[in-house]
Amino acid sequence: SSKVLPLAHTNPRHLDFENSAKEGASLFFRDGHLAKNDGNSVDLDIETSEMGKNSTMYLALSSALKKYRGVI
After folding, report:
1. Is 51 part of a structural domain of the chain?
2. What is the pLDDT of residue 62?
3. Which structural domain, as residue segments, surrounds residue 49?
């Protein structure tokens, strides 16, 4: 079943959400995580862990790029 969330377009500089909906935007749920009573399924511990992984990867890649650019 596909869920569509209503979006507000309050500024002409906002992205055109009508076209993005046609491109097939989808919802992402992690396996085994149930929504709370308010419908929120975000697990802060998991999100913090994922952010740490992304930060570490970004720092490693940007450091490697700086070294590589120094060689050229």
Report:
1. yes
2. 94
3. 17-71
Cα dihedral 43→45→48→50 (10° resolution): -80
Taking only the tens of pLDDT, the chain with its 72 residues reads: 567 677 777 888 877 766 665 566 666 666 666 777 777 778 889 899 999 999 999 999 999 999 888 765
Residue 28 lies in a domain: yes
Assigned domain for 3 exists: no
Q: Could you give phi then psi for residue 26, rounded to 5 degrees? A: -135, 160
